[in-house]
Each structure stands twice: as C-alpha cells, then as structure tokens.
Amino acid sequence: MTDVVVGLDLGTGGVRAIAVDLQGQIIAQTTRSYPLLTPQPGWTEQNPLDWLEASLDALFGVAQQLNGHRAIALGLSGQMHGMVPLDAESRVIRPAILWNDQRTGKAVDAIEATIPQEELIQRTGNPAITGFQLPKLVWLQTEEPQAYARLWQILLPKDYLGYVLTGESVTEPSDASGVGCLNLANRQWDTDILNALNINAALFPSIVESTAIAGRLKSEIATRVGLPAGLPVVAGGGDNAAAAIALGISSSNLNRGSLSIGTSGVIFAPCVRPIPDPKGRVHLFCHVDGGYHLLGVTLAAGGSLRWYRDTFAPNIPHTDLMDMAERSLPGARGVLFLPHLSGERSPHLDPDTRGAWVNLSLAHTQADIIRAVLEGVAFSLREALEVISAIAPVHQLLATGGGARSNIWLQILADVLQTELIAPKAEEGAAYGAAILAMVGVGAYPNLEAAFKMLPQDSNVVQPQANLIYEAGFKRYKLLYDALKVVR
After folding, report:
1. In terms of DSSP bridges, do strands 396-400 and 420-422 run parallel, antiparallel, or are they unpaired?
2. DSSP string, 381-403
3. What contacts 323, CB < 8 A, 6 or more positions away?
4. Separation of alpha carbons 297 and 301, rounded Å
5. Nearest to 45, CA basis, from 85, 17, 91, 6
6. For domain 249-423+458-488, which CATH number applies: 2.40.50.140, 3.30.420.40, 3.40.50.150, 3.40.190.10?
C-alpha cells in the first residue's frame, strides 16, 4: 500500500484537493467552486459554509480516487487576508470579507492615526492595507458593533477550514503575516499594536510553524470524506508561500524567486531577515520555511489582457491575440498602457488609480494596442522589482500562470525586467505546496530541501535581451502615474 499526502488549496474561485505520492506524482485531484458575493460596489465576500461544503466534497472526491493508497497527512493552503468571524458557539457571525475587498479605507486611516505608518512597517513589514484582515476587524468594530460584540475568534480562510476539520484553532506565520498585526521579528501577534487599537489579542488563534501538525481529522469529518480518522492536518501556508514551495523556492537560495502571471501579477523574492521597504511599497511576509519573502503585486496582469479581449475582441482566441502582438515592434510603436484597471498595489498602494492607454494615433493598429498591454504589465512589475531588488536581489524568476505559457510575453517580461526567466515543466500550485509541507510535517522528508529533490527539473529558460527601446519606454511609463493623478 503506497502512502500519499493530500493537499488542499482554498482559493477565491474554488477549492482544489490533490493526492500526491512521496515521489511527487499526483495520483488524484478534484476541484469544486463556490459563489463570490458582491453586496455593494467595492465589497467582496464569501460564505465560509460554502467553502466548507465544497472542501468536504473535494476531499471526498480525492478519497474515492485513492484506489488502495493510504493517506498519511493533509496539508492546507488558501487565499490570504480574509476575515472569518466566529462566536462562542463556533458559528460564523457574518460572511467572510475577502482579500480584494476595498471597504476599509476609513479603518486604514484610523489604524495609521493610532500607530504611525513608519512604526507599522517596522513592526509588521507593511503599512495598513485595505485588503488585510486587521482593517476588516476595525471596520467590524465600528460599522457592525452588534456582530463585533458576539466575536469570540477571528480566523483566516484556510485556518477556519482547519478548525472545522480538527477542532483546533491555530494559524501559521506565512498567512498570519498578512493580517496586519504580526510582529515579524518574533513571529507572534504584536500586542502593542492590538492594545493601542483596543483589540483583545485573544481574538486571534495561536501561531504554530507551517510544517506543524495543527490537529487531527475529527471522526465525523473522516466518515463523511472517506479519509482516516485522526489523520494529521498540517498547518500549511498562505497561497503565495505554498505556491513558492511547489516551485522549490526557499530562503536557502536567495538568487531565485518567482513571477506569477495570472489575473494578478506577483513577484516573490525570498530573504533571510525581515527587512521591509521603508515606504511599504512591497509586502514583507514570513515564508513557510522560517525565512521571509517580499511580494510585489500588480493587481491586473492577465486581468488586463482578459479585460481587453472581453471588451474589444470577444471572438478572438487568446493565442491569436498573442500572434497579433508579435506583429507590432518592441515599444508598441510608442503606445503605453497603464494596467491600473483594479487600482494598484505595488508600488503605489492606491486603490483609486485607474488604467490608460497613452500616445495613441491614427497610425496605430490593434497589434500595437495588444502589445502595449503586455508591455505595460511588464513595466508595472519592473517598478515593483526595482523596490524588491534594493532589499533582496534575485537573478532568476520561475515564471508561472497563464501568461507564462506565452512565448512573446515571457520574452517581453525577461527583457523589461532584465532577469532570466524559467518556465517549469510542471506547475501544480498552492495545493501541491501544501502537500509538500504536510510531507515534512509528518516526517516523510526530514526537511523542505530534501523534499525539493523530488520536483521536476527546470525547462524553457528565457534569457533577457538588452533593449534600449524598453529602457526609454519604462522611463516614460514611470511618469504616467503622477501625470494622470491630476485628472482624477
């Protein structure tokens, strides 16, 4: 009987559960979806009970595919920053407020009026940010005081799932550092911040290591999903950190980070010590391996291209759009695109900024417009990478996500970022990383470095080419944000 480990990733669009053998092969997988709630403009919520039902169904689906394999652990990952408020009877008080919710602007101002932004950055690695969990809690305190009065505990999405599965209320540093009140130096809740905000630290769960066994699968849950009662459930990691583990990215190799081009674009750079950007322009979080990582985020990366296609070219396949972009020249014949369609995170931290095309003429073609979108996303990511590189330089980026499957976009990104890109043979994401963490958690591997040896080797290396047109275009691009602020 072959041992397997189950990894589960609780995403925004749905949940993915996989079973992985100890040689790294996926032998079963299932996905389930659930709705996104938008009760008001700028609000995004989900019902944690929807997460729970979908997750249990996904685990049952995986268990049905095991065919004699024996599950020895379950590892968790999930969307970060969400707020799940529970009462003393462990009931969900209200729908979870998600990572991309923007209702908390006044709460952010209130936090930084109490704790200066510079001090917040030094303690937590980040300023107060609308998407983080702490501003959501302050919002609940002021806007829904009756709900706040019932509050017994506040959990992150994956940790809520872990609590239901095991009855144990814990979190781990990679997810906790996206709450907004984790002291990065000691990796514990910062009671000075919480006391200043009149928030009881007991509302937050205890913190264990990412590879620690958070609890064991309750018998009634085990019966429903078809997994063994008492199965060790390993704490796991936030989705970005778990996805980095799936790529073999750790604080032991500081030259290599990752670049994800999905709906958003994310640059992930590991570092040994918690050194934040003094202005908070990029995120600093704990990594699951005991180190730290910097994140630069462009909110609409692949999302910009999808918006273009849905709005202007709904009948043109994605591959044809890329072919058209190749007909334009580097620099898109002078057209610049600002990809701030969802506001922007790095380096501007501005939810109200908006996108634009600039320098259009009658001579420009659809090919120029599309190429400008690809280049604009690359310029945006370079702004973030320049901030990251001053703290934690990386010389290689493992490129993942839908955008990384486009050869032209990969070359544009390599040339603009002036960084070697590597597109891995396999890209299994956060659920796979959660499974690796679970393997280490139950001793199947002695540490993460040993587990990384089972990962497939690199492929499709894209070398950066020097291009003065991109350098000139980037200088002009950097002027756009401040110039367009005037018209808002």
Report:
1. parallel
2. HHHHHHHHHTTS--SEEEEESGG
3. none
4. 9
5. 85
6. 3.30.420.40
Instruction: Name the token pair of 311.
Output: 């709005």
pLDDT (tens digit, 0 to 9) for every residue of the chain, 488 residues total? Answer: 799 999 999 998 899 999 999 999 999 999 999 999 989 888 999 999 999 999 999 999 999 999 989 999 999 999 999 999 999 999 999 999 998 888 999 999 999 999 999 999 999 999 999 889 999 999 999 999 999 999 999 999 999 999 999 999 999 999 999 999 999 999 999 999 999 999 999 999 999 999 999 999 999 999 999 999 999 999 999 999 999 999 999 998 888 999 999 888 999 999 999 999 999 999 999 999 999 999 999 989 999 999 999 999 998 998 999 999 999 999 999 999 999 998 888 999 888 889 999 999 999 999 999 999 999 999 999 999 999 999 999 999 999 888 888 999 999 999 999 999 999 877 788 999 999 999 999 999 999 999 999 988 767 899 999 999 999 999 999 999 999 886 65
φ/ψ of residue 484, rounded to 5: -80, -15
Are 143 and 97 in contact by the 8 Å Cβ rule? The answer is no
Q: H/E element holding 441?
A: helix 429-441
Choose among 287, 258, 283: nearest CA to 272.
287
Question: 316-321 contacts: CB < 8 A, separation 24 or more?
Answer: 321/370
Look up 310 and say whether it is catalytic: no
Catalytic residue among 9, 101, 190, 239: 239
Architecture of domain 3-241: 2-Layer Sandwich (3.30)
DSSP track, 161-186: HHHHHHS--EE-HHHHTTTS-EETTT
* DSSP state string for 402-419: GGGG-HHHHHHHHHHHTS
Tokens for 360?
A: 């259009």
**CA dihedral of residues 222, 223, 226, 230 (deg, nearest 10):** 30
Q: Delimit the CATH 3.30.420.40 region(s) of the chain.
A: 3-241, 249-423+458-488
Positive or negative, the Cα torsion across 268, 269, 273, 279? negative
Q: What pTM does this model have?
A: 0.92
- For the chain, give the longest Cα–Cα distance: 68
- Tell me how far CA of residue 260 lies from CA of 58, 246, 263, 348, in angstroms: 25, 13, 9, 19
